[in-house]
Write a structure and sequence with these properties.
eight-stranded parallel beta barrel; globular; lyase; 8 strands; alpha/beta; DapA-like; EC 4.3.3.7
Amino acid sequence: MLFKGVGVALVTPFNENLEIDFDGLKRLIDFVSDGGTDYLVVNGTTGESPTTTFEEKQALLKFTKAHNPKKLPIMFGLGGNDTRQVLKNIAATDFDGVDAILSVCPYYNKPTQAGIIAHFTAIADASPVPVVLYNVPGRTVVNILPETVLELAGHPNIIGLKDACSTIEQYMELAWNAPKDFLLLSGDDNLVVPMISVGWHGVISVVANAFPKEFHDLTWHALEGRFAEAAALQFSFIDFDTLLYAEANPVGIKECLSIKGVCGSEVRLPLLKASSGLSEKLRTAMAREGFIE
């Protein structure tokens, strides 16, 4: 349960030349750490992993390990749709200071459930640190079915699942059938409270980049059984959560971070910075919910 609570799927700040802004990354890590974040997730999709190079991913990891003021656990995104290349990347990664990897379901090539099992088994066999599966069918097309998760849960090096399938019945089935020591983490920021209410253990959050304290309180109220307080916070993010993804992730959350002065809002093509219309809607929503003055 090292990863119980709130993990932040860190964005990757860029400067105006679209190079990594390490000063901005330091401010972001300090900001979410001071806000009560339980662990850091480096190089997830929210970190624009599709458009950062292997060398940049390694530099982001190295920097985060060196600038981690509260010595929070670190989960590193390391997945893909070419199993052999993922294994090469594992072999080339320095895992000193890394507590687990987050590995996404293979995307685009649409493997069968048997192929998914073979893929993750190969990764878990090769990884020197524990593996957390990541199911996000809205991006990968393929859904990791509960029976597949349960079979993979039998691997000694696969410790948990981040799930963003947005299907409450699937979440309930996994909570009912998963081993008691198997970590279940929400990938849906707007479903954290109902997921915890049926037995999930926390969230890897996009929203917590800009609102770490609010999301820490939301999650831990729920984990400690204060569901009225947790629900009140969850409701405050419902409309806001929709806005965040109106122009693709992490466009919205980067705009929020820019509004709060943490880091810039630049993203790499094919994504574009938030439109002026979206920026105004986000600012209005943040003010309405009391997130900014």
